[in-house]
Amino acid sequence: MADKQADLTGPGIGDYTELEKILPTDYSSLLSIRDTQRAIFAGKAFIEEHLSKALNLMMVTVPLIVDTKSGVNDLLDRDGSRTPIQFHISNDRDRHPLDAQIVQAATKWKRVALGRFGMQAGEGICTDMRAVRKDYFLDHDHSAYVDQWDWEKAIHFYEHDLDFLKQTVNAIWKVLVDAETFLQERFPALNNSRYPNLPKKLTFLHTEDVLDMYPDLPRKQRETKLLKERRAVFLIGIGWTLKDGYPHKMRAADYDDWCSETRSIDGRPCHGLNGDILVWNYVTQRRHELSSMGIRVNAETLQKQLRMTNQTDFLRYPYHQAIVRHDLPLSIGGGIGQSRTLMLLLRKAHLGEVTVSVWPRILKEMCAEKNIHVLE
């Protein structure tokens, strides 16, 4: 069980000796460095346009920094293992100072922004979000610099259910599948029999299902086994404590609803109105997460999840108070990793081939020996 505990948080491989073993030994980029840049911007424009059409979203600006007192920054996990970068703004010789944080994600900010932009049920926003996550282990698909399509959509109260979640996920999946086709038409070198295309349909499974399938394996190994068989899944119920005493993965208690009772296809009780899109990456031969999303907490589920995680002190923040007072719209939302998605669609072995960030020397040298050239 110690392995299961360790596997709950701490994204990334966590060891450069292990990373060296899993990086491909016969890798060669299908695109030149210039065509890679052209493909990045073509793919990004395609996904932004078609995601906005599919979900009825409008592109809006998004903050890089937020006021610490607002409580709108994303803590990502609920155990405090990943904390934001915080700094003091002395402003006016400290007569009107501010304490600010660099965002880790725009999850909570977006829900507030729905009201600010006057979004009605069925309307939403999409952002070209940038963030810094300083506590990541920097491996082949984790960077301290994060870019996402962070989106949020106002919903009706009767859409707070599993069917609506699946409908939304399927709409997003179609955009990603169509983006792959578009890029291969634009850049024919991406058509390569070594790397099969994404399946047209996602498989939906609950975390309870996957634990029953692989009861003795920790989370990442369960996902790996599953994806070798199913190739692309939406895993429902990230955050709910399963019967082995552990959640599938830690998830913050104050944005996604992971406690509402739902039903599996065969009628068994399950939990959660959130989940992750996971695929098998044929270049890295590993699990590959593209998106986390979910129907957001309402006043009832927010307070329930905060009690379950012993975090009721969060109710002092304006954001949390606004949910309890029903001042914020009911919503569904998520983040789609831009570099993660483009890494997959452009058949790259490392995130650093499609995004500029900072990397330790050990990683750069290791990659260069394997014909993987990261940007910096």
Keywords:
single chain; 376 residues; alpha+beta; BirA Bifunctional Protein, domain 2; 8-stranded mixed sheet; 3-stranded antiparallel sheet; 12 helices; 34% helix; globular
Short description:
This protein has 376 residues and is of the alpha+beta class.
Describe this structure as you would to a colleague.
- With 376 residues, the protein is an alpha+beta fold.
- The protein has one domain (2-369): Bira Bifunctional Protein, Domain 2 (BirA Bifunctional Protein, domain 2, 2-Layer Sandwich), CATH 3.30.930.10.
- 34% of the residues lie in helices and 20% in strands.
- It is built from twelve helices and 13 strands.
- The protein has helices at residues 2-6, 16-22, 33-55, 91-94, 107-116, 162-186, 207-213, 219-230, 299-308, 318-324, 338-345, 361-369, and strands at 57-60, 65-67, 86-89, 98-102, 124-132, 145-154, 203-206, 232-236, 261-263, 269-271, 274-281, 286-295, 331-337.
- An eight-stranded mixed beta sheet has the order 1-5-6-13-12-11-8-7, with helices on both faces. Strands 2-4-3 form a three-stranded antiparallel beta sheet, with no helix packed on it. Strands 9-10 form a two-stranded antiparallel ribbon.
- Helix 3 (33-55) runs antiparallel to helix 6.
- The longest helix has 25 residues, at 162-186.
- The two termini are 39 Å apart.
- The relative contact order is 0.17.
Q: Looking across the biggest beta sheet, what order are the strands in? A: 1-5-6-13-12-11-8-7
Overall, the morphology is globular
CATH architecture descriptor: 2-Layer Sandwich
Tell me the major beta sheet. Answer: 8 strands, mixed
Radius of gyration: 20 Å
CATH superfamily: Bira Bifunctional Protein, Domain 2
Question: What's the overall average pLDDT, rounded?
Answer: 93
Number of E-type strands: 13
Provide the structure class. Answer: alpha+beta
Question: Order of helices and strands, N to C?
Answer: HHHEEEHEHEEHEHHEEEEEHHEHH
